[in-house]
Amino acid sequence: MLFGALALLCAGVLVVAGIGWWGYEHYTGRVQRIPNAFPVNVPPSAQPAPSKSGSETFLLVGLDARSDLPTTGSGAKAAEWKPGAQRSDTMMLVHIPADHKNAYVVSLPRDSWVSIPGHGKAKLNAAFSWGGPPLLIDTVQRMTKVKIDHLMVIDWSGFKKLTDAVGGVDITVDQTVSRRNGPGGVWTKGTHHMDGSDALDYVRERYGLPRGDLDRTHRQQNFLRAVLAKMLSSGTFTNPLKLKRTLDQVTSVVSVDDRLSDSALRNLVWDMRGVRSKDMAFMNAPVAGFDTIDKQSVVLLDQNAASGLWEAMRNDTMAHYVATTDGIDELGRRVA
What we know:
Blueprint: H1 3-17, H2 21-29, E1 32-34, E2 56-65, E3 86-96, E4 103-107, E5 113-116, E6 120-123, H3 126-144, E7 150-155, H4 156-165, E8 169-173, E9 177-178, E10 186-187, E11 190-194, H5 196-204, H6 213-231, H7 234-237, H8 240-253, E12 255-257, H9 262-271, E13 280-284, E14 287-293, E15 296-301, H10 303-315, H11 318-324
Helix pairs in contact: 1-2, 1-9, 4-5, 4-8, 5-6, 10-11
């Protein structure tokens, strides 16, 4: 999920809210760092070109950590990665253009059937399980030819804590569908107020949805948009105690790569201080269809259709791509 960006956007408003530079520096400095997150010994032919000057692309990962202990953030009590212990249940590429006025979020379905270096073909979420952040980053870079500048990670424990820290969120469900997680039953059409446990059930569901993994990624984006809208509202930033609790929680559950220095984080925070949820575009990577391979249900990415998307990320022309491309699987056109 885009929870690392929540930390950036919230911290960026600290200056406006009157907390001052101390708070600004304090909170960006508390974000936990992930050492050795990037791949090494990658052949030059598999190395993507650097990002266009001033633009950056983040890989944001939500972990299905098979541990009762938190694995991300400053409150982590277990390793972020052990072979076979965690899979990247949610993966999003977030492109931040050079002018820092927008953000473009592209979800990569976890069941995407891709080539994983050293392992052959498999589901995309297996890359993290087998090789942690370096193998996942290497896999995504080879698939898209987009340079990953930074990594942000949160596990499901952090997801629930963050949702509860903002007092829950209101999510609109556009059609009645089954609810197979949690207490079961159905999600009725309409607006639901969700706490951390409800929201986790909502974003993890895929078997009861018409398009499975694709509707699931839009649920995750729908939730993210709701959290952003609430955290960036005046009600959060005019209440110092509420703001402090929220920021304490954000910084305790999010981890970032150790290449993202405190100064770079603060600069990004400041540059994006005007961005709100309405300035963010959410979409899925283009998909050609579905299949069953080796008794696994998989998503087949449409490499031809995706070529323009990845080119727009590389060239920092996402605004033009979104405005001129038909058939984008964009949030708002379909949310289950």
